[in-house]
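Form 7-S
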Amino acid sequence: MPDFFYAKGRILESIQFITDEMKEFERDYDGKTWPEYQNDRKIQKLMDRTIENILTALIEVSGTLTTRNTIKVENYADALRKASELLGFNQGDQEKLGKLAAQRNRLAHRYLNFRWQVIRVFKEGKPLIKEFLKRALELEKERLYENDRLNQPE
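Output:
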């Protein structure tokens, strides 16, 4: 298989994007209640879009990690599960992360009856997402360090 050169630095950029979006969510939306959400279409759109952006970027990071490691995946959920396995998560956490793909799809495809449920699931999953980002960042830094070390003249 040929070497994989997906936009150098893309994982780091995506992790930074997710981190920024999560900070914004926590600052601006984390404390919103169901009535506040239900009665304010602007808040609905902002919360939905922020979570969708986070989950889409998380799937992108997962896809990049699995592709780089020649791990075949069937779908977004499988990419999240297999990337989390690569990052050393236990089976239960792999499944929880994989289920975030369905939540992303509910927002992306506008399943209106499930939006608040998606927000709840996202809030519950934030610690796991943060741990995923931490491990992915560590792996990426190790990879970049190793590449730099190998490319140094002797």
